[in-house]
Design goal:
alpha+beta, 12 helices, about 55% helix, about 290 residues, 7-stranded mixed beta sheet
Length: about 290
């Protein structure tokens, strides 16, 4: 007990110089920064269903603080404990490498997410309207025939490995070409078609599947791939279910279902910057849960 009291008194003497004038302001900022980091780490773990891991981390940190404070005459253990937090950080990176890579990709994107609808194109608005008509026409036709499809509308950039995983086409877009690519007898029908401006950049591309455990179990690989790529990149994914013919749209990891021609045209016009995004949260909720 005496050792603990002496330690607390020593801490008090060390803290006193930091509790006056500018030192107090810097101390508050320091505490807020650490609190912000801890909050975001725990929020990240909670989001990825790691509640049990949070308990273990808190317990380990508590033990590390006790050991590194020198309460016990365990020199080697105290020395190792001081660097144990570094080991926890390394484990964190190893365990969540996919999620961290996703966030780093977003940070390295040349455009902010809010600029998704303000991309400038090298083609006229009339050509973009025609492109949208062709995409909608092909999508509705495939939905009527229960032909599965997955298309990515790419306003900005996308990881190059996505393009390299498929077959580069760089062909002018048309509804007939889209339908041919997703014909069940076509060699590229299982992958995704990547569209930028009025061109089909590549077809048969493989996409990362979402790791979100809350996704409806009834959703198939196409829907999971669409959610996965939109979690990582600022793109829009259009999905046609081959079982039901339902048209869905994924943006920023959120899936909205039961689109018709008008709703799909409206969303594409927003993505291409031809129309202001005015859809309310209530409308999105209704379509997502309809």
């Amino acid at each position: 007990m005496d050792k603990i009291k002496d330690y607390l008194m020593e801490c008090k003497e060390r803290l006193l110089p930091y509790l006056s004038g500018k030192s107090l302001a810097y101390s508050i900022i320091d505490i807020l920064i650490i609190a912000f980091i801890i909050y975001n780490v725990f929020a990240f773990l909670k989001k990825h269903r790691c509640a049990r891991l949070i308990k273990y981390i808190v317990a380990v940190i508590f033990v590390v603080i006790i050991l590194s404070a020198g309460f016990f005459p365990l020199k080697m253990t105290s020395y190792v404990a001081k660097y144990f937090l570094l080991l926890i950080l390394i484990c964190f990176v190893v365990l969540f490498n996919q999620e961290l890579r996703r966030y780093l990709w977003k940070l390295s994107s040349p455009k902010e997410a809010k600029e998704l609808y303000t991309t400038s194109y090298d083609v006229s608005d009339e050509e973009l309207h025609h492109t949208i008509e062709e995409i909608v026409h092909a999508t509705i036709n495939m939905a009527k025939k229960d032909v599965g499809a997955l298309m990515l509308i790419v306003p900005n950039d996308i990881p190059p490995n996505i393009i390299e995983s498929g077959t580069k086409l760089d062909s002018k877009l048309s509804s007939s070409l889209i339908e041919c690519l997703f014909n069940t007898k076509a060699p590229l029908h299982d992958g995704a078609v990547v569209i930028r401006e009025n061109k089909i950049v590549a077809a048969g591309c493989f996409l990362p599947l979402t790791q979100n455990p809350d996704i409806d179990k009834e959703l198939g690989t196409r829907h999971r791939a669409a959610i996965g790529i939109t979690e990582q990149s600022d793109v829009m994914a259009i999905i046609v279910s081959e079982e039901t013919g339902v048209i869905s749209v994924a943006i920023r990891g959120e899936l909205e279902r039961f689109f018709d021609a008008k709703a799909l045209t409206d969303r594409l016009e927003q993505i291409y910057g031809l129309k202001v995004a005015t859809q309310t949260k209530e409308n999105r909720f209704i379509r997502r849960h309809r």
